[in-house]
Amino acid sequence: MNSAFNPRLASKYKNNSQIIRVLSEDWVNNQVYCPNCGNEEINHFASNKPVADFYCPKCAEEYELKSKKDTVGNKITDGAYRTMIERLNSSNNPNFFFLSYDISKLEVKNFLVIPKHFFVPTIIEKRKPLPPSAKRAGWVGCNIILKNIPEAGRIYYIKNHIELPKKEIISIWKKTSFLKKQTDLSAKGWLLDTMRIIDKLGKKEFGLDEVYAYEKELAKLYPNNKHIKDKLRQQLQVLRDNGYLSFISRGKYQIAS
Ligand SMILES: [Zn+2]
Asked: Is this structure's pTM higher than 0.85?
């Protein structure tokens, strides 16, 4: 994987945002492999498809691309809020490629993929409506909140200029593909919240009590649920049944490697 943009393309355009779009699309087209099946080729949709920008010709996974200058940051600005929520509810959202670039060097600084099965309403933030003075007054956009996505759902091909091996990317992708089966968004939300708690614990082995310590935090997210602990135990069971965790002894779990 070569992190440099093709500089010859840049000279053809004047408008900055157009230059970035052309450079980043060209880069994905030439450098990025499919994280789902490993196919070396990812193609750009010929016509302007409303939701996705790229697809894998081998496994048909679809990808939307967003680019940003410098750092990845905490939020990614995306399109209309309502469209996003509709897409999540009908589960026709694509996977998400995110690229951050260093414009002075004309190269990619970070590149990550967020699998579509990590998209639940809790990672989407509604933005303020555009003011009356704006061309599209009243229009409401959205942000994707990165910290609300478990680490396993932020898969970096390149992190701070350092490339990760392809084998690793594909294995991280596979580890959570069981989430695709869960089409009920609220059930999936519980699974992802539990994964996020496990991330926060920051260790390979942990006890049930450490997970229960987040009961209050979850009670705020799910005010109508009176059985938070039962729910958490159930999620750990599902994560274990799908090979994301293994069970060491009573009340003790380990993250599968
Ligand atoms: Zn593929």
From this structure: yes
